């Protein structure tokens, strides 16, 4: 590009992963043996890296490529942008590679489609006067069609209809270069950033003629406000005085932004498009240009169209050029997820908020994307995927909640680092790695205090996920694996007696006991400090003790009576999808008896567990072993497995929370095939921090025990208050 070089490259990353597998117990006394063995294995995953360098450090950038990325098989390097011509000879000479130039616009669109599809909080609207400057948008499942307005030296307006179908529909020679060029002539300031700095301090009304300067107030007949610009630089024709550089820069910025905004609106109307994304060096995260473009679009569209910006806008060309080069590997067939541990996040560019930390090499911004093993899609039962927002509280917006949760995660950090180190007693460098993890996550939390919007909307889910990413980065794939193994073993020994006691109850009494068991099981959550303190200090704390902790009815959210009526009077559900939460007592003594009751009613069950570890949540591979053991004890479960009426699937997630718009494709297919008509979401992470307000097309149960006193207080209850939410969609 004109001032920055953006580099995209692919690497394979060796990660440690915790694997569980059943012991071969043939002929052995298994009474005191662990339930299964845990081994840590190396797994190779694919990662995309994106780095920015300033062009003044182009030599450093090329050294980096030469030292780390070029091997004997590399013959060609893909390049796009003005610099692909400007630096072509230097690149070829220094790297000994042929530069293969790609079309700028094709790369830009390819890159744009990629980030819109793979980064949930990629798009934001800019709000000048709110507590948080950036308001992130939920990605619509269908990203097309949209208008891309690229403001470089001039303006290009492109209509994008599909992955490969786009057309240039218009543009203007009055763009970023005009602002820069005229600005330089007016202010004698040659640098673009300095020009913007001047504009941010200026007062355009000193230079511009307003409607009230012409008419003495508002022009009522046409509905024009008195403060509207009637003529850019209009006062310079009559005023006999010098104007300040700041005021002239501000007036110029308004003039060009308003022109571009009106043009974009007219094209959007002409082509019936409601999504307009702005990019190019004129935007590049500068609050002052985003503000003027936002105002202009809002004014000319009468609030019907929103100006939208992209978090990774500066990378679009590089991503596109990379995708062009990697077409034989077809990166688009996979889903990708941002690795929060390795990405620097979006910085506010107001220098007083957060001085840009740049190393001497000129790199100052990084993005990493990990390839996910399986493609992710929407849950087919979401009522409206385009308006679904997984998270219950937006911490970017809610300053009080943000302060509480950031402090909460800071206070828990030492304990998490200790548990991570303790989970690998045989490792000589576990303590050192745990300390590196602690420092990295601590730094992320400090960044988020200053810049809550760094990775999109800040939520409890994103804080939890960032922590998991940082643990993985330092090879702690599953710090709770031994805890889960032990708790699963203990709970299995109690399974039969719990079933016997349930079977001895009358029907109505049993329904309540099953729900109470589900809720009591949900207490066993190592992610909640109130619980982990109890579990650490009282090893004998068990299922019955957990039941006694639960709030008595009426619960904080209580639609149990409606649920009971539905079971009494309605036909059995065809198929229930259950999102499981914790290992041990939760899954074995809470969820499985409930599953067994549904099966006995003639309802098929899909039991969905995390693909990868998070806290003490049960993983898919652990659930297979647990289910096999339960089936050996229980004929109902055994025959349901054999007849495929009980199906175990993975969610595609490795998070303690649940995003129903990013689920394993296989799970979505099964949900459709089995005509699922009941969804059960249990646990604080999946049913309260996320999905509390999620609207589904079918009946749903959301149940959890609130194990955090601040959250309980926020919801109007006390610690161990119960949420039992039975929802039926409106016909």
From TrEMBL:
<keyword id="KW-0808">Transferase</keyword>
<keyword id="KW-0963">Cytoplasm</keyword>
<keyword id="KW-0533">Nickel</keyword>
<dbReference type="InterPro" id="IPR004567">
    <property type="entry name" value="Type_II_PanK"/>
</dbReference>
<dbReference type="GO" id="GO:0046872">
    <property type="term" value="F:metal ion binding"/>
</dbReference>
<keyword id="KW-0067">ATP-binding</keyword>
<keyword id="KW-0173">Coenzyme A biosynthesis</keyword>
<dbReference type="GO" id="GO:0015937">
    <property type="term" value="P:coenzyme A biosynthetic process"/>
</dbReference>
<dbReference type="GO" id="GO:0005634">
    <property type="term" value="C:nucleus"/>
</dbReference>
<dbReference type="Pfam" id="PF03630">
    <property type="entry name" value="Fumble"/>
</dbReference>
<keyword id="KW-0418">Kinase</keyword>
<comment type="similarity">
    <text>In the N-terminal section; belongs to the type II pantothenate kinase family.</text>
</comment>
<dbReference type="InterPro" id="IPR015844">
    <property type="entry name" value="PanK_long"/>
</dbReference>
<dbReference type="GO" id="GO:0005524">
    <property type="term" value="F:ATP binding"/>
</dbReference>
<dbReference type="GO" id="GO:0004594">
    <property type="term" value="F:pantothenate kinase activity"/>
</dbReference>
<keyword id="KW-0007">Acetylation</keyword>
<dbReference type="InterPro" id="IPR036075">
    <property type="entry name" value="ARMT-1-like_metal-bd_sf"/>
</dbReference>
<dbReference type="GO" id="GO:0005829">
    <property type="term" value="C:cytosol"/>
</dbReference>
<keyword id="KW-0944">Nitration</keyword>
<keyword id="KW-0547">Nucleotide-binding</keyword>
<keyword id="KW-0464">Manganese</keyword>
<keyword id="KW-0378">Hydrolase</keyword>
<feature type="domain" description="Damage-control phosphatase ARMT1-like metal-binding">
    <location>
        <begin position="410"/>
        <end position="717"/>
    </location>
</feature>
<keyword id="KW-0479">Metal-binding</keyword>
<dbReference type="InterPro" id="IPR043129">
    <property type="entry name" value="ATPase_NBD"/>
</dbReference>
<dbReference type="Pfam" id="PF01937">
    <property type="entry name" value="ARMT1-like_dom"/>
</dbReference>
<protein>
    <recommendedName>
        <fullName>4'-phosphopantetheine phosphatase</fullName>
    </recommendedName>
</protein>
<comment type="subunit">
    <text>Homodimer. Interacts with PKM.</text>
</comment>
<dbReference type="InterPro" id="IPR035073">
    <property type="entry name" value="At2g17340_3_helix_bundle"/>
</dbReference>
<comment type="function">
    <text>Phosphatase which shows a preference for 4'-phosphopantetheine and its oxidatively damaged forms (sulfonate or S-sulfonate), providing strong indirect evidence that the phosphatase activity pre-empts damage in the coenzyme A (CoA) pathway. Hydrolyzing excess 4'-phosphopantetheine could constitute a directed overflow mechanism to prevent its oxidation to the S-sulfonate, sulfonate, or other forms. Hydrolyzing 4'-phosphopantetheine sulfonate or S-sulfonate would forestall their conversion to inactive forms of CoA and acyl carrier protein.</text>
</comment>
<keyword id="KW-0597">Phosphoprotein</keyword>
<dbReference type="GO" id="GO:0016787">
    <property type="term" value="F:hydrolase activity"/>
</dbReference>
<dbReference type="InterPro" id="IPR002791">
    <property type="entry name" value="ARMT1-like_metal-bd"/>
</dbReference>
């Amino acid at each position: 590009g004109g001032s920055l070089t953006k580099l995209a490259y692919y690497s394979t990353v060796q990660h440690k992963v915790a694997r569980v597998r059943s012991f071969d117990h043939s002929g052995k006394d298994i009474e005191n043996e662990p339930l299964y063995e845990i081994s840590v294995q190396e797994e190779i995953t694919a990662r995309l890296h994106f780095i920015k360098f300033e062009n003044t450090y182009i030599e450093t950038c090329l050294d980096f490529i030469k030292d780390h990325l070029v091997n004997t098989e590399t013959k060609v390097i893909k390049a796009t942008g003005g610099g692909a011509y400007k630096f072509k000879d230097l690149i070829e000479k220094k790297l000994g590679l042929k530069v293969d130039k790609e079309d700028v616009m094709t790369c830009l669109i390819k890159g744009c489609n990629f980030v819109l599809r793979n980064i949930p909080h990629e798009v934001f609207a800019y709000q000048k006067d709110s507590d948080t400057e950036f308001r992130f948008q939920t990605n619509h499942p269908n990203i097309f069609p949209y208008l891309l307005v690229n403001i470089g030296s001039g303006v290009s307006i492109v209509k994008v209809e599909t992955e490969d179908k786009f057309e240039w529909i218009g543009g203007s020679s009055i763009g970023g270069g005009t602002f820069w060029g005229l600005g330089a002539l007016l202010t004698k300031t040659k640098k673009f950033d300095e020009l913007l700095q001047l504009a941010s301090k200026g007062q355009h009304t000193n230079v511009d003629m307003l409607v009230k300067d012409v008419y003495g107030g508002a022009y009522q007949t046409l509905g024009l406000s008195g403060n509207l610009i009637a003529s850019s630089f209009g006062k310079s024709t009559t005023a006999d005085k010098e104007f300040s550089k700041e005021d002239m820069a501000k007036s110029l910025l308004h003039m060009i932004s308003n022109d571009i905004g009106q043009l974009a609106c007219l094209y959007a109307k002409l082509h019936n498009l409601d999504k307009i994304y702005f990019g190019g060096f004129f935007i590049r995260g500068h609050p002052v240009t985003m503000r003027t473009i936002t105002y202009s679009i809002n004014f000319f569209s009468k609030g019907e169209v929103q100006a939208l910006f992209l978090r990774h806008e500066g990378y679009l060309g590089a991503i596109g050029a990379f995708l062009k080069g990697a077409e034989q590997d077809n990166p688009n067939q996979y889903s990708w997820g941002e690795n929060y541990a390795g990405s620097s996040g979006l910085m506010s560019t107001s220098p007083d908020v957060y001085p840009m930390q740049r190393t001497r090499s000129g790199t100052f911004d990084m993005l990493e994307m990990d390839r996910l093993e399986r493609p992710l899609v929407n849950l087919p039962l979401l009522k409206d995927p385009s308006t679904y927002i997984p998270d219950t509280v937006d911490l970017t917006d809610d300053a009080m909640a943000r302060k509480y949760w950031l402090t909460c995660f800071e206070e828990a950090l030492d304990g998490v680092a200790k548990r991570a180190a303790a989970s690998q007693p045989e490792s000589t460098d576990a303590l050192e790695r745990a300390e590196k993890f602690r420092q990295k996550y601590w730094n992320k939390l400090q960044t988020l205090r200053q810049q809550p919007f760094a990775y999109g909307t800040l939520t409890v889910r994103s804080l939890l996920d960032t922590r998991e990413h940082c643990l993985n980065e330092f090879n702690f794939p599953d710090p709770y694996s031994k805890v889960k193994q032990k708790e699963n073993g203990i709970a299995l020994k109690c399974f039969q007696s719990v079933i016997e006691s349930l079977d001895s109850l009358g029907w109505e009494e049993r329904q309540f006991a099953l729900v109470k068991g589900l809720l009591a099981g949900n207490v066993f959550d190592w992610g909640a400090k109130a619980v982990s303190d109890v579990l650490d200090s009282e090893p004998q704390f068990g299922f019955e003790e957990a039941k006694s902790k639960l709030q008595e009815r009426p619960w904080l959210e209580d639609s149990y009576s409606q649920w009971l009526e539905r079971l009494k009077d309605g036909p059995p559900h065809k198929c229930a999808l259950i999102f499981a939460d914790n290992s041990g007592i939760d899954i074995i003594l809470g969820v499985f008896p409930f599953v067994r009751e549904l099966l006995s009613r003639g309802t098929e069950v899909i039991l969905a567990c995390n693909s990868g570890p998070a806290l003490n949540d049960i993983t898919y591979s652990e659930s297979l072993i647990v289910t096999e053991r339960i089936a050996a004890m229980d004929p109902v479960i055994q025959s349901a497995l054999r007849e495929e009426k009980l199906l175990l699937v993975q969610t595609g997630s490795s998070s303690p929370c649940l995003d129903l718009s990013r689920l394993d494709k296989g799970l979505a297919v099964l949900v459709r095939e089995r005509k699922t008509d009941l969804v059960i979401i249990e646990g604080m992470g999946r049913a309260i921090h996320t999905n509390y307000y999620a609207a589904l097309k079918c009946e749903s149960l959301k149940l959890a025990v609130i194990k955090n006193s601040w959250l309980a207080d926020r919801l109007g209850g006390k610690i161990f208050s119960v949420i039992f939410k039975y929802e039926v969609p409106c016909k």
